[in-house]
Structure formats: C-alpha cells, structure tokens
C-alpha cells in the first residue's frame, strides 16, 4: 500500500532540518581520530576464478580494526589501474564470505566490501567488532550511544567508512580519482554521508533506498525495523526526545548530504515500509551534488534490486 | 523453533511411499514429448566483464519455448571444454536479469540458469510462459492440473528441466560427462528429479532444502507457502484427497530419487518452515546414489546459503 | 478502520481512466469466439425438495466447457416462465455442491450458478478448468496472461460469463427479457462487465463490493489479497508496469461499466480491505445505467451480506 | 498443520473426566425452571417463495423470551406432519434474517433456527438478550458466571435449547417422534447436550466440530478463540482454576453425552484450531448412543461444510 | 506510527457531538438508583507495612455490591484527615490483590481502588459481578445493553463510580473537599464522567489516555480492542448503527465532560492505537473545567506511565 | 497453548549440560575485577511519603559506575537494622523512576533496585551505560561479545550484580546476614547466578520465570524474544554454533545454580513463550540449595505476578 506522501508531494518535500552549529568541527574532530595503522591485505582463496580476493584489515575510528574484502577482476581482465567502488552494508549485514559480494568486481571495478562494526549477524556475516560501548539503549544499533554525538554509534561507523574509502583510493591498482561509494539502505545512508564528509575523495555516489535520513519524520511514519528502535527509545525515555534528535542531527543524511558534491544516482521505493519514501526524498532533495533518482512505484524495501543494478552499471560506466 | 522431527528421528525417517506401477512408462512417455527444435543462443551484454552471457531459447515439453541464460567465464578464463552446472529456480523465481545469477560461471563452470515455466514474478523474474492450462486449482502452481499426472503442472516442468540439461550438455564448450544439476527449494526438487529421470546425463546433484518431497507429510506439517496451496486444495476438494496424492506420487522427489545414481551433496535446515526437515530427509534417505548432507540446525528456509555455497565449491571441484 | 477516501470524497471520485481505442473491437472479437456447442443439462438429485437442479455444461470462450447449476423452484411453485438470475462467483470460489447456492431459486427465480474457469478450490468448489495458459505470473489468477489483452485470463472469464447469460435466457422456462446478473466481489465485477458487454440481454445488475475496478488505485490502496497479486507482479516486473495497466484497462469495470444501461443496485463497504471503497465508487460513479448504492459503513469485505440480500429481494422484485 | 493428536491416537482418546455427583439433580432442577409461557408464532414475509417462515418467541430458562425462526416448506410441498430439525448456532451467531438459514426447510423438514441468548452480533445476528448477569469474567460468553454451575451462562443456554426442542415437537405440523437436533461448533455442543438432557425427545443428533468438549484439554491445546477466553480467565484468576473446571464439568459435552441415546452423525476436522480434534473425539468416544463420524483431514474449523451437509441429508433421511 | 490527526489538528479538533435532550434527567434518574446500604470495611493483611488496607463493599447501582480496597498510609504517617484519590480501572482490570495498587496511599493519600463490575479477569483481578444482563452483544463489555441508555452497561458502571467517590468522601479520615478521581484508559473515561456527574464532589481529575470518548471517530480510526467491539457490533447490526450511537451519546466523555468543573491534568499518547489521540483531544477540548494536558509523542497506549505519575504527584500536591 | 514438555516431564527434566573445566577460575577472575570505589548515595525526593529513596552509584565490573535506587521504609517504620532485597531487572528494563519499584521497601525491607548495564530503554528506564563493546552481534544484548567468555556481555552484568549485593549488605541499616536476591525473567536468572557466585552472601533467592537457563534447549523451543536473538545469531554464524554454546556454558543458570546453597522460592509458567518452562525446570532441578516452585499452569511470561508476590511475602518473612 502507498502509505506515505504521494510521489508528487515527496518530490517537493524539503523539511526544515536544524543544522548543528558545530557540525563541521564535530566531523573534523571525528575524522582526525581515524587510525593511521596501514592496512593489511592478505590473499584468500574464494573458490571463484574470475575474481581475486584479499582479506583487508584497515584502521578505523580510534584505530579500531575494520575488516573488508577487496575484490579485483582476475588477471588478465584488469589492465592498468581500475576505477573503484566501495560498498557499505545494509543494517545487520556484513562483508559476508569471500565469494558473496563480487558484483562490482565482476563488472570490472576494484571493489571494496566493508564491514559495519559490531554488525554482521544477519543476512550476511561480518568480522568486525565495536569496542565502543553505550549508555542505556534499545536492543540494536540505532540508539547505541545516542545520548551525545561524541558517543553515538554512527560516529564511529561513518569514520570507518571514510577510512575504507581512502584505503581503496590508496591501492596501487586503483585510480583514486575514479572511486564511487555505494550501498543500499544503511549502506546508502553511509555512502551519502561519506560523500559529504570526504567530498574530494568521492567521484560518484549510488545510494539505494537510504536509511538514516530525516529521523524525525522516519520516527513518525516508519512501520518496521530498524527505525522502530528509535521510536521505542523515545517511548521509554520520554524526557530525552529532543536530546536524541539533537544527537541525530549530526548524522542525518538529509543534513549532511548538502555538503556533498559528487554526481549521484539514487533509488526510492514508494511502498518501502522500512525507509519511507518521504525520508529518502528529504535526503535526495537536499543533496548538494548532481543527482538522478529512479522511482520504483510498487516495491517495498527491496527497491529496484537487480533492475537498479542494471541502471547503475550503465550510469557508473558513463560517470567515472 | 524446532517443530518437526528431531535430527535423530529425521536421519532414520523412511516413510513407506507408494510407487505408481506405471511410473517408468509415465516418465518415458513424458520425456518423449520434449521438443526437438534446436536451441537458439544469442549473445547479450550483461554489463559484466568477467562473464559472457547468452540468451537461450530451448524446446521444452511439447516443444514449448523455455528461456535460460548461459553464462561462461570470460575469455581467456575458460580454456578447453568446461564442466557445467544447470541451475533450477526456487518457487516463483525466474532466470532473472543477465547479471543476476553468475555464481557458477564465476567459479569456472558453464552455467545454465533455467526458467520455470509460468513462474518468474517473485524474487527474480522469468521470461517463460506456460501454455498448459488447468482444472480448478488453488492460486499458485502446486495444484495446477493436479487432477491427473498427465495434466499436472510439474510434468511439464520436469520435462523442461531435462531438456535444459541436454542443451547444456550439447554445447560445444561443455564436457557432457561433467555436468551437475543444482538448485534450492523448488530448484532442489527439480534437480533431484532430473537426476532420476536422466541418470546417465547427470554427473552430480546439489539439492538445497528441496521442495516437492513426501507430499503427505509436507501437507501435515508445513507451516508456510507454498505447501499450504496443497493443504487449501485438499480442504476445498474433500472428495479428491486420495486422487491428489495419487497424482503427486509421480512427482515426489522421495519416490523418484531412488532412480538416481549420481553423487550428491544435500543441505537441510532444521527450522525450515517452508520445506520441513523431515520431508527433506525422506528424500535424502531414499536417494539412490552416493550422498552427503549438511545440516543447518538453526536456519529457516534460507538454509546454509553462502556457507553451503562454499561447501559446494569444494565438493563439486572434487566430484566432477 | 476507515483507511480509504471518506464517504463524501468517494461519492464524487471519478478517476480519469484511459479507454483503449480498440475497446469495442477487442470485445466484439472476443465474444465472437464464444462456442456454439449447445448446452447440456442433466437433472441431479440435490437432496432438497423445494428446488429442482440441473448440472449444466455450456460452451464458453473457444468452446471450452463451462459448468454451472441451474436451479428452478420445485413444481408447482413455478407457474409459467420465470425471471432469471445469473450468479457469478467470488474469487477462488465455484458453483459448489448442488444444494449450496439456491437463494434466488428459493425466491422464485430461474437461477444459474456459474463456475469461474480454473477457480473453485476455495470457499466453494468448482468443476471448470482453464485450458488457457499464461506467461510468467504471480501465483493466482489476477496476473495470468497479463502481458496482453488477448492472453489475459479475464478475457476468457468475461466471455464465459456472457455465454452463461445467454444459456439462461435461452431456457424454455425463462423469460429472456427479465434476466438479472448478480455477484459479490469478483462476481460483482463480472456481472457489471457482462451488463456492459451484452447490454441488450441484461435486465438488471446486482454488484456487491465489486472487484476488478480502477486497478491503479486498487494497487495503491488495497491491503489484502487478491489485488496484492497485482502489486507483487508489478514489484517483480518493474519494467512492465505500464504494459500491465494497459492490459487491465480492457477489463476495468470502471471503464467497461460506462457501456452498460440496465438498472443496477450496488453495495459498498467502507472498511473493505479487499475491494477498497474508492475503487467501488470509481465503478459506480461511471456506470452507464440507472443506479443505487447501499453503503455499509462499518463492514469489511463481507459488506451487507444477508441485509443486502433482503434489499435485493425487494428491489429485484420491483425491477424485473 | 496437524498440531493435535494423530487420528489414530484421537480415535482411542478417552480422558478420565470427573462426573459431578449431583449432575442429574443439577440438570433436573435447571430444566424445571424452563418457562411455561406458550410460544408465540407470527408469520413473516421473508421474500422467499419456497419456504414459509414464522417469528417464534418461546419461553426459555426462567421464562426469559427466546427468539427463533420456524421455517416450513411452502405449501403444497409439505404433506401431512413433517420430521423436524432444531438448529443451534455457532458462537456469536444468531438466527439471522428470515431468509438466511433455510437449508433443512428446503430439504423438507420443519426447521427451527434458535437464537443463543445474549449472542448474535457476529457472523449472523440474533434477537435474544440474556437477563442473567455474571461475576468478573473475560470479555465473551465462555466465562460468564463460571464461579458456580448455578450462575454459569451455559446453564441458561442449554435450558433454552431444550425448551426450543419441545416447542418444535409440539407444533401441529411436526411429528414429535422424528425431530433431530443439529449445529456446528457451539451449535454442535448444544445439540449433543440437548440429546443428553432430553433423551426421549431427540430422534437424531448432528454435531459438527462441536465446541464445549473436554475443557481441560481444550484449554491446553486450543489456539484460537473462543476457548482462549477460558485460558485468559485461568491466567488471571490463578486461584480459581479448579473451581472453574468444577463448574465446567456440569456442561462438558464429553461428560453429558454419555447420557444421550439417539443415533448421531458427527464430524471433525483434523486441522481445526478452534475446536481441537482431540476434544471432539473425547466427546464422540464417550457418546452414549449409536454414532458415526466423518473425518476431514485437511480442514480447519469450517470442517466438512457443504460436503457434510450432503452426508447429513442422506443420513437423516435414512435415520428419521 | 503516527496514524491519527497531527498534534496541531488534534489540539483544535472539536467535533460537533449531539447532546441528548434528556441527558440531565437520564443521569439524575440513574444516580437516584445508587444504593443506600452503608459500606462495609474490613481490615485485611496485605503483607505491606507502610500501608493499611481495608476490603470495602459498597452499594452501587440498584444497591448491587461493589468491591474496592481502601489503602491508607500506615500510622503514624497519616496525621489528621487526608486528601483522597479514587482510582478507576482500565478495561478488563480489577482492584487486584491488596498489595497491588498502593501508589497514591504511598504518596500520602487515602486511596480507594474500585472494581469495575463484571470485569477483573485481565491484567488485574476483580471481585465484583454485574447482575445486569444484556441484549445481543459482542463478546466484551462495550456493547452490553447498547440497545438503549437504560440498559447500557456503562450506566451501571458510572453510577457505581459516583457511589465509590462518595464512600471515600464519607470516610472519617478523609477531607471530603480534597478528593480527586483518577485512572487510565477506561479509568480515565470513568473519572472524567464522575467529575461531570458529581461536580461538587470532585476536587481534581487525572484522566490518562481516556477511553469512552467521541465514539463515532473512535469507531472510525481505532485499530485495536476494545473499540473494535463496537465496530464489530455495528458490522453485524447494520440496521442499528444510529441507535447504538444514540445510546452512546449519553456516555460519551466528550459530551459529559462539558458538565465538569474541577481542575484536571490529562495525558495523551500520539501513537496510541487503543484510544486514538484525536478522541482524547475531543474530550479534552470540550472539558468544562481548568485543564492541562501532557503529550507523549512516541507512546502507544502505555502513555506517560511512570513519567506521568511523577507529573501527577507534583500537580496533585499543588492542586488539592 | 501448552507447547513445551508436560509438567510431569518437566519436573524430571535434567539435561546433561557441560560444565567448563575452568568455571571456578573464570568467575574468581571476574569477581576480582569488581571495582573498589565506594558507593555514593544521594537522597532523592520521590514524591512518596512511605518510602525514603537514595540514588546509588556503585562500582561494578572494572569499576564501571552502576546505578541503583535504595529504598527504605520511611521513619519510624524501620526500627533497627533491616533485612534486605536486591532486585534485578527483566530484559531491557532499568531501575525506573524513584517511585516506580518500591514493593519490597513497602513490605519493610531495605530494597536495592539495580540497573542492568546498557539496558533500560524498554518497559522501565535505566541510567547505566555499558562501556564494553562487542564483536559482530545480533541487535540486542544476548549475543554481545558471545565470541568468548571474557568478552561476553553477561560477564559484566553478573559481576555488577554481585557488587550491588555487597553494597546493600554493607549498608549501615541492613543486616548482612538477611539479604535476599530477587527478580523476574532476566532478573530471575541474574539473582540465581548471584546466589551461585556469592553463596555466603545470599540468604534467600526469589527467581521468577528465569531467563538465561539451558540455552541449547531455549534456542530450540523458545518462540519469542529475546532468546530468538541467539537463534538468529546461530542462523547467521553457522560456523560458530559450538563456540557460542561454549561461551554460554559459563553463564547458564542451569549450570551455575548447582553452586548455590541459599533457600529459594521459584515460579514457572507453563504457557511461557519467552522462557520455556522446560528451561526453568532445567535450572530449578539442578539448583544446589533448598527449593520450592510455584507452577502457574495457564500463564505466559507474566507468570504468577501479584499472586507470586503474595506467596513471596509470606515465604520471605518466614525464611529470612
């Protein structure tokens, strides 16, 4: 069922979201805490013959180890330096097994599949812990450390994501000026935030049905997990509603995205119960760079899926 | 929750399933109706660089056109003739888009991804219709034509599946003695049936959490679609219960599988609400060829997923 | 819960639905394919003493056999020729057992209870198959053959329905100028379409909570089966959304009904999750003949049920 | 899903249910309180021509008025005196509208359709109130007055049911020696209880999927309303569990039925979530008179429905 | 999810609800039927040392016995006469066990916890029956006797509630000019009605997320029990919709509350699926006395819970 | 529904659970890491007059601050030193607001209500964070750090719980030889573990429907959260099943409880979907000290609730 704004309303939906006065300082300070330990790459046998895979351990926020797979098209299918794609994961997923996510590598890109710290026990598995603790929180990740921007879980996640991007850009077989960031749902939110926090490092952005957008509306209209973690937190901590939203304003893709400048190809699903289409448009409409959006009128959170992949293959080939 | 037989009980569960007296004749007559129109292969651009893809139209039951993708590892990654894998689809899925299912090709196999006629409007899309009609049936495919073996939907599906196998075996780049059949759920049921109906053509079988096994128990214990289509049919047609099971006995993987002889690697999930583990063991325990089974104790119908893929890569490399 | 347009909004809801340019030709060609095999009537013993029942096999689309029951009030309760009612079935139902649907016969009408081909495995059973196949489709009937008007399932159903009407009109004990068509849900959609396709044969129409109306809105607001079959089809075949709606425009009761001219008594339920009230009003508001509508404010898809039956008894007695 | 005892186990399931020492006295005292006000019959126009209908007000427990419809086959279809059927209603139903339940009249019987006091706001409507109050009770009827046999709701209901039986037997057009009692679910429980409480007045019993049987097991295995009313009551009144079961032992069809002697035709559904098959067999196995049972293996609470109606027509014609 | 009016809309939502012409007479006549039997108080041992508890039996409507607990702060914590709080219960609850509801006594008030007749088999238990019967009704209390104001269940409940208030006011240790009425959900509705029916006896009102407000809108938007009892009643009795609403207009808190004059502190939850926020605001906006309302933006029917208790402690200390 | 072992089976259910060889060392090492910072107590105004409340900050595992409320009966209701009760919280709850949990103080005990670190955003709120991080984990607390006993979340929780016990025992108004531990669900598991880890400090144990018992069976039969967190973790990390259970064996109440010696009063609910009754009996049957258990036959996870509180009041008064 279409339960959110109509497409016409959503296309012009531009909520007046507060921008924290110290947003730039906060993120400058955060990115300064990315670790400097050089990444370790180890060749692994995935069982595939068309892709070459490396197990990557890179330094994230506070030098915490973050795990990823680097997939390269097998020799001799990768002449010279390659364009790259960093892929971030949906909520509760991880980089998975070595043979699991090789789409962009199969399409000729250097492909870095990055874990989300602490996650990776859901639809795919991860190998990265989160040493950061939290205050009282709902089960889940969305309210972990929400009592302040400094302690909020996604501070560490976004910093890790920027770190991963730079690792791929620094790889000898990669052209650092031609690296895209991509992901669906949480991965879409992270990739857009990375485009905002490291604008000069990102050549293109591919956010699908992004999460982490326009939290106040999301809390009002979302019908399924994980936004409901936030709703339950606010239902319990009736005295911390504004404090929670104040924290979230530092991480809202509909706030941060204004700082981005890379060309972008988005997607949205009009029956998406997880990431309501209005919240996706809030982010899309405020995004700072060139942008296009594919609208899937009858899809839930799966969005365009393989159809969007086809669209992205062509768009990215033309954009990078 | 574990709701079915315990693992210990399931390992020795061997229901006494009736074998139709004319089973061999029925299937001989059915396979004789596979069309003889030569397959048509057309190169398509999938957007991937590591795999080469062909749009295949092959002749199925009664010469009805059946669509498939043939994926080959890109040159020069495929020296000489290749071992092959025919992959059948889960219920309501289809061959999808050209870039969607390339796992076995990425692992070095000639890989044929075959549609299931009439299906392909679910988790992946298909391009193959089913000209066969039906008597009164539940919405869905499981009871279409169930009034007699001759009209039953899966008669046409199994015949198509054998036809597809022979098309891959007949391809110039394929070693016909080294072709495996594989699939999950409905695809697992079909691949085992193919191994039974064309035993000399199949070199290995990879059935994951197979559907279409031990229908009477399935109707008794299954908790979700699509076995519930059968339950609803039996609930409506209270006077045709035995007739329906008589038809199904020609298609039951736990009956047919005795005729198979190829080595096989199975998987089962003990919390599988869709394909109850007891029904999978009914088929496994009666399977005629060499066999191993991976047990996933805490999984629902997703079963072993990528973990089973890892296991299959090693097993198949050693078996073919 | 009231989840759709308010009653005030619904009463004036007139969507601008596209009318196919060749609509008349399409239906003329379709009706021309109704078979000419004369109907066969066989007396059956229903166990009832007040109604006399015949098992009818009539020629439907492409001369396919369609089954029905003809119920007549028992002698001597039926003096002279009788007015008639053709009753079409709700989705997934059938003509049932001989004693099951005898309401209109008990009220003094010649009563023909017609199967819907391929259906009849749900709340009542049917005896009529559908030899027509389909392209890739959702489990169910609503998307069977949706790739083109010529192959769409309801083409055959509507043609069968017209055929059945003429069979009742041709019966020796029936006054052909006094025959009504009736049905709930799918049966309501079919009866209105019959009134549009055979306007000179229909003396009155009784559509209750009709299905098959204003498909685009239905896909947008319906919350339960079977409209969700369409939504899932559109979700899978993201590239065929407009093609599907183009096919449906030939079968939309809100489009066809403009061609009808018989007096009609409708009903609608404002909490109907299956056939949203707005879609019913879309059809009602565009209906071409005289019309009245009963509004059931707190009912789901059961609508007025026995209360509407009381209303219909009086209205039909006055109208025929 | 089959969730209860297997059919083999159920066929021999005979729980050791306690019989209250004063059971006979209790019921003698109760039936003595049936009112003696003569019934009032008023001809109503139902809109049907094959059945003649009277609005009946009869004296129930404590002379409370109880409403019913008396349907007779229309003249001249009813020569001489007729056999009769008293039909009791399922939980939350009522006698409905005059044209609604005329099955047995259409089959040639004098047919009394009786309200259940206080109910009749569900699938059909009733016109009979319940002046009796209750102690603290769950919403619903099953725990109303459960604190003692004297105050329990079903005491009044069973007495009303016996009163209605005698009203039909006393009608001038009815043969008092050929009256059956019938009903599904709650109606099945009531009809069996009537056969036990007025054994000399009942010529045959037709209980379908009866409710009110073997309460302790029902509370343990039932998965849906209305037995869950009892479970919730016991969950709240943790200190009254035995008191509640002591009350119920006076009303348990599996206890009372031993006193019955009329021939009976039962039905049970093996996937019945409302009236678990084991509880039905508990009553059937202990029933005092001749008995047969139809088993519907794949049905939920709808049981045999029209198929059982066919069976009953033949059986009753042969039995009365 | 926010599914009802926005907060801005709700704050000004003032439906035009009909006021029965004989409202005052009806209630005068009703209150005149409160029994005059003096209350009986019996000291009970609750196991608590800080609170002293009495089992109270008081005379309600038609002198029916109504049970309550009177809790007093233990000596010597209660110098002189005390302010009082009468607490009414939520739907299906009761006064519970002696140690269960002692909040207001612990805060220094004479605290009367009153049963709701016939209820008390849910989240807490009750000890008070309802000798009043009903016409055909939905399972539950909301439609019991809804056929007329005189027979409606809540007539007896509201009268009992007024009786209980006067019992507390008449206690020797209570200052009759300083007694508040309080409750959540149904208890909120009752306490506001008491403030309207006995305005000179009530010093303050504490309605939380009140039930029994603006029934027509409630029937239109409520998503869960118990308002759905009303919807199901209206769905069955399609011919009694206006009659039912006419009865309810005598009991609607949004109608009665205009007659109240005591200061009040309300609460509402914007995600309340049980008592929709718009219905609460309908009552709040029409309330006749001084008023404040706490809005809990992300809570379902639990509302402010302990947070509201904190707010009430301060407000009541300042108000009494 | 009764879905687990029958009561008879459960009473003798004694699974053969592995005891880690270094269990004693592990816990000795863990308890050695409890902080030595003296507790800080600050008087707060709760609004209640019968209870005096202090905000407590005590040193937990690794000296992390843990928050609690200390409630004492108000003067002069607490002569001399008092017996004490430490109350641990159910999953996702916290110590709540100062007036929220005062039951044991109202009964005359020194009552310490302790937070569970990181939790407290559910049915009650908490104020204690968890600085400990985790590896990849399911959303929730049950799999946080499950990769090894050293990192497992409940290691810190159990240590905090022992620390809190000692704080209460060390209070000047408390008799250290008369302190009980109590709690429901997670609180029941924690209190029993505390009795095992600090046997000489615990005078009585009151575990209600305890969580954290017999994890392997719990994962097999539990039907709701939070045990399903574990099931989902095992479903994702198919390769870590035994590693996870190995970690859990250090924390299993059915393993640890053998080390306890204090008298105990347990409760279990036979329809408990959250903490299956068999798992509770596994813990109860292996408990090392004197024991009694109340069985609530028809309750879900709410168990005996206020009824059990009555039972506990009497038992504890007699036991301490």
Features:
320 residues, alpha/beta, Rossmann fold, globular, 11 helices, 9-stranded mixed beta sheet, homohexamer
Number of strands of chain A: 9
What characterizes the major β-sheet of chain A? 9 strands, mixed
Alpha plus pi helix count of chain A: 11
Strand content of chain A: 15-25%
CATH architect. name of chain A: 3-Layer(aba) Sandwich
Protein name (chains A, B, C, D, E, F): Acetylxylan esterase
Pfam family, one (chains A, B, C, D, E, F): AXE1
InterPro entries (chains A, B, C, D, E, F): AB_hydrolase_fold (IPR029058), AXE1_dom (IPR008391), CE7 (IPR039069)
Overview of the structural elements:
Chains A, B, C, D, E, F: It holds the Pfam family AXE1. Chains A, B, C, D, E, F: Residues 3-317 form the Acetyl xylan esterase domain. Chains A, B, C, D, E, F: This is Acetylxylan esterase. Six copies of one chain form a homohexamer. Chain A is α/β, with parallel strands linked by helices and 320 residues long. Chain A has one domain (7-319): Alpha/Beta hydrolase fold, catalytic domain (Rossmann fold). In chain A, 32% of the residues lie in helices and 20% in strands. The first copy, chain A, contains eleven helices and nine strands. Chain A has helices at residues 7-11, 23-31, 103-106, 153-169, 186-197, 215-221, 227-236, 241-248, 253-256, 277-286, 305-319, and strands at 40-44, 51-59, 65-73, 82-88, 110-114, 174-184, 204-208, 264-269, 291-296. The first copy, chain A, has a nine-stranded mixed β-sheet with strand order 1-2-3-5-4-6-7-8-9, with helices on both faces. In chain A, strand 8, helix 10 (277-286) and strand 9 (291-296) form a beta-alpha-beta unit. In chain A, helix 6 packs across helix 7 (227-236). The longest helix of chain A has 17 residues, at 153-169. The model of chain A has no long low-confidence stretch (mean pLDDT 96). At the A-B interface, helix 3 and helix 11 of A face helix 3 and helix 11 of B.
């Amino acid at each position: 069922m279409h339960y959110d704004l109509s497409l016409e309303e959503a296309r012009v939906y531009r909520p007046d979201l507060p921008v924290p006065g110290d947003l730039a300082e906060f993120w400058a300070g955060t990115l300064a805490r990315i670790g400097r330990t050089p990444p370790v790459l180890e060749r692994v046998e995935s069982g595939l013959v068309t892709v070459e895979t490396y197990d990557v351990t890179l330094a994230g926020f506070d030098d915490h180890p973050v795990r990823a797979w680097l997939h390269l098209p097998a020799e001799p299918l990768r002449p010279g330096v390659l364009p790259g794609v960093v892929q971030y994961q949906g909520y509760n997923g991880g980089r998975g097994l070595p043979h699991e996510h090789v789409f962009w590598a199969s399409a000729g890109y250097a492909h870095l599949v990055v874990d989300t710290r602490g996650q990776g026990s859901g639809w795919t598995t991860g190998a990265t812990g989160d040493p950061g603790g939290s205050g009282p929180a709902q089960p889940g990740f969305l309210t972990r450390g929400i009592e302040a921007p400094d302690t909020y879980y996604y501070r560490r996640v976004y910093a890790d994501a920027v770190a991963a991007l730079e690792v791929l850009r620094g790889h000898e077989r990669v052209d650092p000026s031609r690296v895209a960031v991509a992901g669906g749902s949480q991965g879409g939110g992270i990739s857009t935030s990375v485009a905002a926090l490291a604008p000069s490092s990102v050549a293109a952005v591919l956010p699908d049905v992004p999460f982490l957008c326009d939290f106040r509306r999301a809390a009002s209209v979302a019908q399924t997990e994980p936004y409901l973690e936030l709703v339950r937190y606010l239902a319990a901590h009736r005295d911390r509603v504004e404090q929670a939203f104040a924290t979230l304003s530092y991480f809202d893709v509909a706030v941060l995205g204004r700082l981005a400048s890379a060309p972008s190809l988005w997607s949205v699903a009009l029956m998406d119960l997880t990431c309501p289409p209005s919240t996706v448009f809030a982010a899309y409409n405020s995004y700072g760079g060139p942008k296009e959006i594919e609208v899937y009128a009858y899809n839930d959170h799966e969005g365009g899926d393989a159809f969007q992949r086809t669209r992205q293959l062509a768009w990215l080939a033309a954009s990078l």
